[in-house]
Amino acid sequence: MRKRGLVLLMVAAALLILPAATLTAQQGDEPQFVPTYGLGDQMMTINLGLFIPLFFASEAEGINPTNLSLGGTGNLQWTTHLSNNVAVGGELGGMFAFSPSRTLFMVPITARVEYYFRNYPWEFPIHLGAGMNISRIPDEATKIDPILKPGVSLYYNTAGDWAFGANLVYWWIPQIYFDNDFEDPDLEDENRFGNFLDLSFSALYRF
Amino acid sequence: MTDVKMPKPIRLLACSAVSILGVLLLGSCGEQPFGIFAAIEREAEAEDSHFVGARLRGMARVATGNGDYYIVASGRPQWRAVDSPGADNWSNAPRPSGFRSSGDWMTSVVTVTVTANGGEVYGLFKREGSSNRTAIFEWDGNTGSWDAEIARNTDPPFDSGWRISRLFAVGPEDDQILVASVRDMDSEKYTLIEVDTDGGGFVGGGVDTSSEFPFSDAAYDDDEDYWFVSRDKVYTGDAIETLAVADDAPEPDLDDPPHDNRGIFYATDGPLYLSADNQIYRYDSNNGGWESVTINNKRSGDRFTRFAEYEEYIYVGSDREGGSTNGGVYKLDTTVVDPVDQAFARETGRPDGSVIYRSHLAEYFVDEEAGSIFALMYSRGAQNEPGLWRRDEALGDWNAE
């Protein structure tokens, strides 16, 4: 099942990138127009991809596997340029993955800053998202934690307003509980630092 | 002086950051049942009980070779050898001859102890399409069968308008009696009556309790009084025919959702315990009154069910009002002598390490000879995983059966 999902995602990625490659081939040796961006130039991005659980870390138990399956993730981003290389914005996303008897859902809501390196038509933004993450096991528990999402992306700009690419984003979620967080005061050592990887493909629209 | 304004996107982000911090602070206020990441990290492949989805109504150890456990699961008797633990070893168990595997049901099984070391096992079977619809049989350990019918619902003082609904073994440890709860199908009320296990039939006329609710548990105390409990009432008396409502017994709030698993239990050295929804009471015969027992780590919404004594602990089960996830096990350490210090405490078996935590506990069965306690669970929703669970040591894990 996981292999088949991976193949489907790769096909989807190829379909996203293929139009860009075709456009490049048509451009030939014509002089390139290299756009620059400034305050007020905005972007909307949609990302879909794989959610890869890495490990949980804790003082009590050390480093341990997450017990989660490969999952799915997606998000919507809005960003606006402050200068040609710097953009800020926000992001609303979600993920799911399965444990042996549960399903974990997380919804991160983050603010985001991006710095762009360019070799037009290619762009290599590095970015950092910070905000809150809502973790939920249906019918059992919900928790809101902070989240940090550092990442890198690779975009190919088409001749129009569109760019397509891929992202590699690390999710770092410190899930910290205090004594009075539990119905059961005997519960201890429940703190965990969640470490996950998000591998997704993007479609970006500039306006 | 000139105002220096932040660019609009920066202001937007600053506002967002403040909002997010606010939500983070608010979100950390609610109580959690466990750490989400921690629970998933500890989670193991859950074992499945053989009885997932079954309604378990009584369990006994019957004499056959090295012995067998016999359980009533959704009306069907199942058994396995005592020395072959595990969910894979259960199979269909014998029924009385003439009783079919479909359409006829078993509704109760109890062990009546008649010596310090053992007793006789009785089963209640219901037969569809017959005027003699309910009958009590005695297990024959020599033949491994239910061939001896002891009583049926048409035996005097009853007729075909009555049904035997449940059996109770109650009395002194080495001289228990078998009591049947018999329901008048017209008035839908219950009579308690002793079963004559020697001569067959019933003893006397029984007592019309006028109870509209089925009886769930029975006990016998050192003052030689019998106790029976239904959803709303507690009955007591020095003989079955003199049972009367114990007026001073705590009553649950009937406006709460139905709860037909109340327990009453007399510990080896006393006292008498009673569960009444979300509280446990102890009966002090010297003062003639009921007092509530301290419960540590109690979760709101937990309602108490049946009791059992195993090693140095008295266990009580719980279900969770309106909840789909958690029932649980509470226990009291009997080595604590001073009643003031005695308290039930919820086992902190974690939800991920023990599936039993995610079900609701109907009753226990203790096999002192084998050193095992069994928890008979039931479901209150799709998230539950009811079934049968066994613990072999006081501090051991619960294992799927």
Largest interface: A-B, 53 and 38 residues
Q: Please work out how many helical segments of chain A DSSP would assign.
A: 1
Number of helices of chain B: 2
The total of beta strands of chain A comes to 9
Q: What is the terminal separation of chain B in angstroms?
A: 80 Å
Sheet of most strands of chain B: 5 strands, mixed
Low-confidence stretches of chain A: 16-26
Helix percent of chain A reads 10-25%
Mean of residue pLDDT values of chain A: 84
Adjacency order of strands in the biggest sheet of chain A: 1-3-4-5-6-7-8-9
Could you walk me through the main structural features you see in this protein, from its secondary elements to its overall organization?
The complex is a heterodimer of chains A (207) and B (401). Chain A has an eight-stranded antiparallel β-barrel. Chain A has one helix at 2-27, and strands spanning 42-58, 62-64, 71-81, 86-98, 103-119, 122-137, 141-157, 162-175, 192-206. With 207 residues, chain A is mainly beta. Chain B is mainly beta and 401 residues long. Chain B contains two helices and 29 strands. Chain B has helices at 8-27, 36-42; strands spanning 56-62, 68-73, 76-81, 91-92, 105-115, 118-126, 134-140, 145-152, 162-170, 177-184, 189-195, 202-211, 215-220, 226-230, 234-237, 244-245, 264-266, 272-276, 279-284, 289-292, 294-296, 302-310, 313-320, 328-333, 343-346, 360-367, 372-378, 388-391, 399-400. In chain B, 45% of the residues are buried.
